[in-house]
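Fold Annotation — chain and its backbone
Encoding — discrete vocabulary of local shapes
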Amino acid sequence: MQEILQVGQSRTSVFRLGADDWRTLRELRLQALADSPDSFFGEMSAERDYSEKHWRQELDLNVWLTATSNTRQIGLVKLNCNARALDDLHLEALWVTPDMRRRGVGGILVSALESVAATEGAPELRLWVFIENHSARDFYLRLGYTRTPVVQDIKSNGRRRREQEYQKHLEPVGSRAHSE
């Protein structure tokens, strides 16, 4: 794990997971799915059986950040990079342990992920929220995301659902942004 952010006296640190951190990713992802199965596009029954190779590829293809407090893992977020186009990077799979919610951890993780995307040169960050997930919608609106007109139907955990897209303009950071 590579530390990328430490937040003041809250003792919350954010780390970027590397390929050798696949066990940490697997453990946190399965915790998230067990805790909040209706919040994610993924199924515990499938992901529990994923191989080490799968988890390593996931870490190779995407950016996963974890938040810790006093060495305890308290949150996870993914920057989906599969599209490989800077204008199509999107935040995916934000999760915070139940006892740490509403304490700023989610905001810290999102801010760190926005910094990673901006450093890569992404002009904006997008994300999808299930229409019925009002707390997630309100959370992202508070962080400065705006709703787009794009809505899509998907099948998640055996049922049809609708997702709303949100986006946020990112301020240029890093050498790529300054050289363009």
